[in-house]
Amino acid sequence: MNILILGSGGREHAFAWKLAQSPLCDSLFVAPGNAGTAQVATNLPIGYNDFEGITEAIRRHRIDLLLVGPEEPLVKGVVNYLRSQPDLGALRIVGPDRQGAQLEGSKDFSKQFMVKYGIPTAASQTFTADTLTEGLAYLDAHSLPVVLKADGLAAGKGVVIANTAQEAQDTLRDMLTAQKFGEAGNKVVIEQFLRGIELSVFVLTDGVNYKILPEAKDYKRIGEDDTGPNTGGMGAVSPVKFADRKFLQKVEEKVVKPTLAGLQQEGIRYQGFIFVGLMNVKDEPYVIEYNARMGDPETEVVLPRIQNDLVELLTATADGELDKVALQVSPQTAVTTVVVSGGYPDAYEKSKVITELDKLEQVIAFHAGTAPGPNGHVLTNGGRVLALTALTNSLENAVRKSQEAARTVQFDGKYYRKDIGLDLIRYQD
């Protein structure tokens, strides 16, 4: 089978790493990929939003299976575009069409969906520039802290938790009138702040059948002890100790099943991953958000724990036969520490030489933002540069090995959080 992955981050390197292990994988391509994917696949110099270029590559390389990594091409309708090509009817695609991707592409759509199908979530209301006055009045009467979310895609940074009324009102104005998040902020969802412990549950569905993949907890803020601005993710852990079997059964019954039933009711044939961002509030699950794809860096701790042949899983998903596959999950713990460029998530420099990669032991180095450089060097090419994953028999060992790897790799301006997983160790104690 010839396989193409769209994307260039750590998630896509993790997918490539896992797919390359399958005897069913003949040729593996990544568009556009990074220095890490180049080690296990052939990178194609095609942007993941270049639908014409992607289509031509599928034809040229006789691609049998397409896996869409990032949210943007899904929301923009890459699946719809490919399905409209008469000669690509046999192409297997893992990823929802434009309608299904609205679960992530519009916070307002997803909130309305949750309310309609009885899925537990925080109370909320949506406002636009035309209803700014009403929004300010709504905030004035709202309890604090309060959460403001840009409706559209904002690269994981369109969420603000405001602790004062002034901050909340300034944020709403910034989003709706100053276009802080561009078109993504044309609508703003204001919602109740939920107190609890955050985690993510991942579902792979063929439209009818589903598998619940290993859960994970990620660390979004740049600073230790969860301080500073949100990022795309500074690290992740799987499994999550506070998500016991009883809680995960509640997630399945109260969230997963009604979500899939709602999609079917809406006439959406959803074939791909659903990322469910959850808050555990006194042992009850509440949905914070949906993503229409796997998370990053959660993929880098979820995939190493899946023992199945990933090509088999994805083929069953595209063929509507996921019920014929038994999911096998390792009981080991995976921890990833993300090493980022200095200045991230704000302005940062690229093209810094990365050294000591050859010194890494007992970890998987997933490349998140890298590019091949001259003389065989690997260069930084993004805010998040590497996701260093350890898979061991204990949380403590996985934390230690992942952190050792983060200390070992070197590049100018390197930064990483030194507290990834420590809260879960304390939770165990």
Could you explain how this protein is built, in words?
Helix 5 (98-105) packs across helix 6 (107-116). 30% of the residues lie in helices and 26% in strands. The longest helix is centred in the middle third of the chain and has 21 residues, at 245-265. It contains 13 helices and 23 strands. The radius of gyration is 21 Å and the shape is globular. The mean pLDDT is 96. The strands form six sheets. It has a five-stranded parallel sheet with strand order 3-2-1-4-5. The protein has a five-stranded antiparallel sheet with strand order 12-15-18-23-20. The protein has three domains: 2-84, 3-Layer(aba) Sandwich (Rossmann fold); 123-192, Dna Ligase, domain 1, CATH 3.30.1490; 197-428, ATP-grasp fold, B domain (D-amino Acid Aminotransferase, Chain A, domain 1), CATH 3.30.470. The chain is of the alpha+beta class and 429 residues long.
Q: How many strands, what sense, and barrel or not for the largest sheet? A: 5 strands, parallel
Strand order of the largest sheet: 3-2-1-4-5
Distance between the termini: 47 Å
What percentage of the residues does DSSP assign to strands (E)?
A: 25-35%
Outline of this structure?
It catalyses: 5-phospho-beta-D-ribosylamine + glycine + ATP = N(1)-(5-phospho-beta-D-ribosyl)glycinamide + ADP + phosphate + H(+). Pathway: Purine metabolism; IMP biosynthesis via de novo pathway; N(1)-(5-phospho-D-ribosyl)glycinamide from 5-phospho-alpha-D-ribose 1-diphosphate: step 2/2. By secondary structure, the chain is of the alpha+beta class.
